[in-house]
Amino acid sequence: MRKGKDGIMRLLGKGEPVPYRQMLKALNVSRHERGRLDDMLDYLVETGEIAKLPGRIYTVAGAGDTVRGKLSTHRDGYGFVMPEDGGEDLFVPARYLSEYMNGDTVEAQVVSTRRDGKREGRITALVQRGVTEIVGRFEAVGKGGRVIPDDPKLGRDLFVTPGPAGGASKAKNGQIVLAAITSYPAGARPLEGRIVEVLGEANDPEVEALTVIKKYELPHVFDEKVMAEAERQPQQVTEEAIQGRVDLRERLTVTIDGETARDFDDAVSVAREGDKIRLWVSIADVSHYVAEGSRLDTEAYLRGTSVYFPDRCIPMLPEQLSNGICSLNPQVDRLTMTAEMLFDSTGARVDQKFYTSVIKSAARLTYTTVKKVLVDRDAEAIESNRHLVADLKVMEELSLRLNAVRKGRGSIDFDLPEPQIILDLQGETTAIVRAERNLAHRIIEEFMLAANEAVAHFLESTPVPSLYRIHENPDPVKLQDLSEFVFGFGYILKVVDEKVSPVALQKLLAEVAGKPEERLINEVLLRCMKQARYSAENLGHFGLAASSYTHFTSPIRRYPDLVVHRILKRVLAGKMTKADKDRLEARLPETGLHTSKRERVAMEAEREMVDLKKMQFMRDKIGEEYDGYITGVAPFGLFVELIDLFVEGMVPVATLPQDYYVHLEKSHALVGERSRAMYRIADKIRVKVAAVNEPRKQVEFALVGTLEKRPIEPIADVRNAYQRIPIKGKRPKPRRR
User: CB atoms < 10 A from the CB of 575, how many?
Assistant: First the structure.
């Protein structure tokens, strides 16, 4: 046969993709020679010289898709390129990642696509380095040393140059340091750098917070010029500032927030009008104090959002503004932007208007206080707030109407429990409890959703360029997998033209409510959802089943809300010129992209800080047993969240009972091939705390036993899964691709 590399490349070099069967004929391959051809094709795909397309079709490298995006690596060496323009991530094997690091922006070539649509590729070019500094633990080695990164995804240590140039003399063994990269890995050359700052001793709460701040490059100190600008702002509302505003100071207006909140950016007021209810949502007028293009504005844009750790807040604005003149503190005049809306007896919005205003909050209420009045009927709380009780009851009634409207159109609510970290004065974790979400939370949530939606509809209908909060339809492939998954439980989820309606998903959640598989299907459905983001193009909000939605209600802590305030004020004042529209159309896409990125960075930093506190809480729990739910399944183990403590850890697959375990990706399960023992997402199991791996920031569990019978076992999936995962015993022979 003419099956050598030269023959294959000549055949593919004609420019047209060639199916495998056509290649057999063109190269005159006999039956007993197919194995050699397969080996050569596999080799050429792995080296990136050719690409394998769905349906076992081959083409020359470069003819396949090219992906540009950020590289996310796994601590085991492999990684994924997340496309800048969206779509499915591209898997990159470890053998192609020796010179690249987590966070790098790269270009990659798709070299193969499986039948299930999953793509594999190799990196062809570095666009931009994502990491220039590394935070980690210093270990002295001779006159130099090494820094063990705090982020396990980096997958390699940084070697500190010996002598004064490396700065090794600045740090003591075991201290946490910040090191600047001076040389990236290439071939046999390792990652090298120099120490630029010693953060302090490990396990010091202040150092832990600083470690996360440095790792995620969170701006946390306002420079002198920004502070000077903030300090020039008045701390009392002047009569001049009130001129031209609607005076709402005589209205009974209150703020409702958490006990520890210090910045109050929303206040509410209600009035019954026959069978209708009028709602005033007044939001801090931050744009009055933060001028566009000022140093305060530039710094706020850079930060994008406030960041909340269990023991502190890194604010978007200096405290003179966030906790001072902008905060809607009780019994003081404050400048606001008000959305006034009228709702009928069914909860439909029948009227709306927006204007600049001035309010005086009558009370700073907490969620706990409102719950005591409306839910617990606590006599003491009712007596203390008797002048507010009537309005609070109207708020409750309106919130129920609004919630009914949202549910009626298909809005999806994932009422999942969230942890609250309880710290002592030294910053150590003393308890982890379920964060309460009661009626008071839902009242404010419904009012803020209503205001955001009303503002979005108004700006869109004006029309004027604006910034929207969008939530796109779930990924089509994941939707189809979900449809097949729930069918195994007897539920029908119709996917039409690769889409599903929010109403259909809401109906599914209602059908599984109270059933043994409820938690399982909720978890799988949640994984289908895309992440909400900011965009200058209105694509609707799938999760809220809203055709138009924005963020307007939190300008103290979110920059997009400040942008929307400025646009709304200019429209209301009749000052939106064509030049303004052109400027917004040019600038808003980048604003949406930047603020979405800052939001994701903040979320990752907040999650890491919470996980760190959880891990520290488990240090002295080695050997103790807990009940938990499986929250994730991977070929290398089970992720389990403890029911009482909200701590997540991993049960390594090597510690499970001896068997060959098959990872059923679509069924979210690990199944023992011999025993048919199944471990599936949302199963309730009992585990023992085996270890706390601080370098990896991971709690390791050992399986004690299962606690409940699974409703359905996808045995058909087991029979069809040929790729075995050897845990103990002889390794099975690999299956030829």
Answer: 9
Distance CA 283, CA 357 (A): 9
Query: How far are the Cα atoms of 484, 661, 673, 737 from residue 722, in angstroms, in the given order?
Result: 20, 11, 10, 12
Structure tokens given for 240: 């001049």
How, if at all, do strands 678-680 and 669-672 pair? antiparallel
Collapsing DSSP to helix, strand or coil, 438 comes out as coil
Taking the C-alpha atoms of residue 371 and residue 382, their distance in angstroms, rounded to an integer, is: 10
Q: For residue 616, which of 224, 204, 267 has the smallest C-alpha distance?
A: 204
**CA 14 from chain center: how many Å?**
45
CA dist 128 and 615 (Å) reads 33
CB atoms within 10 A of CB 390: 12
Identity of residue 514: G
- DSSP-assigned letter for residue 271: E
Q: Kindly give the pairing relationship between strand 90-92 and strand 429-434.
A: unpaired
Q: 677 and 630 in contact (C-beta within 8 Å)?
A: no
Angle between helices 439-461 and 367-374 (to 10 degrees): 110
Quote the crossing angle between the two packed helices 578-617 and 559-572, to the nearest 10°. 150
pLDDT tens figures, 684-724: 899 999 999 876 778 999 999 876 555 444 434 444 443 33
User: Using CA atoms, how far apart are residues 600 and 72, in angstroms rounded to an integer?
Assistant: 14
Cis peptide before 463 (omega within 30 of 0): yes
- Extract the tokens encoding 561: 């809300």
**Cα→Cα distances 186→101, 146, 148, 632, Å:** 11, 18, 19, 35
DSSP lists the bridge partners of residue 80 as 72, 91
At what angle are helices 559-572 and 295-303 packed, to 10 degrees?
A: 130
CA 603 to chain centroid, in Å, comes to 6
| Residues sharing a CB contact under 8 Å with residue 613, sequence separation 6 or more, in sequence order | 310, 421, 423, 429, 432
Q: Residues near 604 by Cβ (< 8 Å), separated by ≥ 6?
A: 216
Q: What is the pLDDT confidence band of residue 443, given thresholds at 50, 70 and 90?
A: very high
- Angle (CA) 474-445-413 rounded to 5° is 35
How far is the CA of 688 from the CAs of 613, 698, 721, 728, in angstroms? 19, 14, 30, 22
Q: Give the tens place of pLDDT for each residue, 289-312.
A: 999 999 999 999 999 999 999 988
Contact in structure between 152 and 146 (CB atoms under 8 Å): no
- Please, what is the average pLDDT of the chain? 87
User: Measuring CA to CA, which residue among 254, 264, 279 is closest to residue 388?
Assistant: 254
Contact 132, 181 (CB under 8 A): yes
What angle separates helix 386-409 from helix 439-461, to the nearest 10 degrees?
A: 60
Asked if 174 and 137 touch (Cβ cutoff 8 Å), the reply is yes
Q: What is the pLDDT of residue 188?
A: 78
Residue 726 to residues 75, 508, 702, Cα–Cα distance (Å) = 20, 37, 19
Closest-CA residue to 105 (of 84, 133, 134): 84
Give the H/E segment covering residue 670: strand 669-672
Amino acid at 467: L
Structure tokens at 704: 């004690």
DSSP letter for each residue of 55-122? TTEEEETTSS-EEEEEEEE-TTS-EEEEETT-SPPEEE-GGG-TT--TT-EEEEEEEEE-TTS-EEEE
Instruction: Pick the closest to residue 714 from 657, 674, 664 (CA basis).
Output: 664
Rounded Cα distance, 614 and 648, in Å: 8
Alpha carbon distance 500, 478 (integer Å)? 11
Nearest alpha carbon to residue 615 among 704, 523, 683, 689: 689
> pTM score, two decimals?
0.84
